[in-house]
Amino acid sequence: MSNEAANLRLKQYIEAEKAILVAGQSYKIGNRTLTRANLSEIREAISSLIASGATVDGSGNGRACRAKQIIMRD
Fold it and tell me: Are 10 and 54 in contact (CB under 8 A)?
Protein backbone atom coordinates (compact mmCIF):
# COMPACT_ATOMS: atom_id res chain seq x y z
CA MET A 1 0.00 0.00 0.00
CA SER A 2 1.35 3.43 -0.88
CA ASN A 3 2.19 5.84 1.90
CA GLU A 4 -0.50 8.26 0.70
CA ALA A 5 -3.13 5.51 0.83
CA ALA A 6 -1.98 4.44 4.29
CA ASN A 7 -2.19 8.04 5.52
CA LEU A 8 -5.73 8.37 4.14
CA ARG A 9 -6.78 5.08 5.69
CA LEU A 10 -5.33 6.15 9.06
CA LYS A 11 -7.35 9.38 8.94
CA GLN A 12 -10.51 7.39 8.16
CA TYR A 13 -9.92 4.99 11.05
CA ILE A 14 -9.35 7.88 13.43
CA GLU A 15 -12.62 9.48 12.29
CA ALA A 16 -14.40 6.14 12.81
CA GLU A 17 -12.93 5.91 16.32
CA LYS A 18 -14.17 9.42 17.10
CA ALA A 19 -17.66 8.56 15.82
CA ILE A 20 -17.83 5.48 18.01
CA LEU A 21 -16.62 7.39 21.06
CA VAL A 22 -19.27 10.09 20.52
CA ALA A 23 -22.27 8.05 19.37
CA GLY A 24 -21.49 4.72 21.00
CA GLN A 25 -20.45 1.34 19.70
CA SER A 26 -23.92 -0.17 19.67
CA TYR A 27 -27.56 0.79 20.02
CA LYS A 28 -30.89 -0.87 20.78
CA ILE A 29 -34.09 -1.00 18.79
CA GLY A 30 -36.75 -2.75 20.79
CA ASN A 31 -35.18 -5.96 22.05
CA ARG A 32 -32.43 -6.03 19.37
CA THR A 33 -28.93 -4.70 19.94
CA LEU A 34 -27.05 -3.58 16.85
CA THR A 35 -23.32 -2.93 16.70
CA ARG A 36 -22.04 -0.09 14.52
CA ALA A 37 -18.39 -1.12 14.63
CA ASN A 38 -15.89 -2.90 16.82
CA LEU A 39 -13.77 -0.33 18.65
CA SER A 40 -10.98 -2.79 19.46
CA GLU A 41 -10.61 -3.73 15.76
CA ILE A 42 -10.43 -0.06 14.78
CA ARG A 43 -7.77 0.61 17.41
CA GLU A 44 -5.75 -2.41 16.23
CA ALA A 45 -5.90 -1.09 12.65
CA ILE A 46 -4.77 2.36 13.80
CA SER A 47 -1.82 0.86 15.68
CA SER A 48 -0.89 -1.27 12.68
CA LEU A 49 -0.99 1.68 10.29
CA ILE A 50 1.11 3.84 12.59
CA ALA A 51 3.62 1.01 12.99
CA SER A 52 3.87 0.75 9.20
CA GLY A 53 4.72 4.46 8.96
CA ALA A 54 1.38 6.12 8.26
CA THR A 55 0.93 9.63 9.66
CA VAL A 56 -2.07 11.89 10.11
CA ASP A 57 -0.32 14.95 8.74
CA GLY A 58 1.02 13.12 5.68
CA SER A 59 4.61 13.91 6.54
CA GLY A 60 6.03 10.77 4.97
CA ASN A 61 7.19 7.68 6.76
CA GLY A 62 6.72 8.99 10.28
CA ARG A 63 10.44 9.29 10.97
CA ALA A 64 12.04 12.61 11.77
CA CYS A 65 14.17 14.07 9.01
CA ARG A 66 17.73 14.57 10.09
CA ALA A 67 20.35 16.84 8.58
CA LYS A 68 23.94 15.69 8.56
CA GLN A 69 26.91 17.95 8.81
CA ILE A 70 30.36 16.92 7.68
CA ILE A 71 33.34 18.69 9.19
CA MET A 72 36.60 18.28 7.27
CA ARG A 73 39.70 18.11 9.45
CA ASP A 74 43.38 18.22 8.40
Answer: yes
With b for 16 or more beta-carbon neighbours within 10 A and e for fewer, the 6-24 pattern comes to bbeebbebeebbeebeeee
Query: What does each of the 74 residues of the chain score in pLDDT, given as a tens digit?
Result: 788 899 999 999 999 999 899 888 888 899 999 888 889 999 999 999 999 989 888 665 545 456 667 777 77
Considering the entire predicted model, what is its pTM? 0.66
For the chain, give me the number of helices (H) and strands (E)?
2, 2
Q: How far is CA 68 from CA 22, 59, 71, in A?
A: 45, 20, 10
